User: Which sequence fits this backbone?
């Protein structure tokens, strides 16, 4: 079972690395160490992209929270938020605020957003918090390093990756791949026919809610923790202290959940 967990985590993290949209290629360098980050300079931003042929949204953050909400009857992708720099004086924080950039690209079939911050921070805190609203039918790729990733009300594929923080998926109808190193994964997903859900965590829990009539081959595995199934009928069940497999409905799709240190729960609604 440990082999299965390792393989799943490697595969999901390899896939999720592509979400970071080549952050290293746009990172700049900055010198000058500061002794503390008691003072903060902030600036709000707003971008509006008219939807034409775009069907996908990708975002790569570094430090801060990312919130994405799907809405009905909209023809725009709206990206708002705040960028801030913490430093030892307000003057230094304001001087380095221009070094923190939000890069938005309107491509042929995709809208991309990327945080660009100095590689050498000099001890300063660089933070960007994002709030995005877009059509519910967009496919989503969202990656972060430190902070939360929240995606709500999307009727398409949602792929998310994070290092430190939560991943929260709510009212998702579509396939999903989720990878996290430290934190909790919480998700409410309706799996399409022959769809796939893959979730891998290293240190933290996985809490998944799915409809009671979900049809999928189900597997869950961990090293340290407990696996619980609530309000779901799992046929052909095979279980041990670290794994649980079985079939939901006709087994048309696939649900694979894995963590190293944490609990796994799957609940029907």
Assistant:
């Amino acid at each position: 079972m440990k082999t299965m967990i390792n393989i799943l985590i490697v595969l999901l993290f390899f896939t999720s690395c592509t979400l970071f949209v080549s952050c290293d290629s746009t990172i700049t360098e900055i010198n000058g160490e500061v002794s503390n980050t008691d003072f903060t300079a902030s600036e709000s931003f707003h971008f509006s992209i008219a939807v034409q042929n775009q069907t996908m949204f990708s975002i790569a953050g570094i430090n801060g929270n990312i919130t994405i909400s799907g809405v009905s009857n909209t023809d725009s992708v709206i990206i708002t938020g705040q960028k801030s720099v913490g430093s030892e004086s307000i003057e230094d924080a304001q001087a380095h605020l221009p070094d923190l950039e939000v890069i938005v690209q309107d491509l042929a079939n995709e809208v991309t957003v990327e945080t660009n911050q100095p590689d050498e921070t000099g001890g300063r805190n660089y933070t960007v918090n994002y709030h995005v609203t877009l059509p519910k039918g967009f496919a989503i790729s969202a990656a972060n390093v430190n902070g939360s990733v929240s995606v709500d009300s999307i009727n398409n594929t949602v792929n998310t990756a994070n290092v430190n923080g939560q991943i929260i998926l709510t009212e998702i109808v579509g396939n999903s791949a989720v990878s996290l190193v430290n934190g909790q994964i919480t998700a409410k997903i309706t799996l399409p026919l022959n769809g796939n859900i893959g979730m891998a965590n290293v240190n933290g829990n996985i809490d998944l809610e799915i409809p009671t009539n979900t049809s999928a081959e189900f597997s869950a595995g961990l090293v340290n923790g407990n696996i619980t199934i609530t309000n779901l009928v799992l046929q052909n069940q095979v279980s041990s202290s670290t794994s649980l497999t079985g079939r939901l409905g006709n087994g048309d799709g696939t649900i694979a959940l894995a963590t190293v240190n944490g609990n796994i729960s799957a609940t029907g609604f």
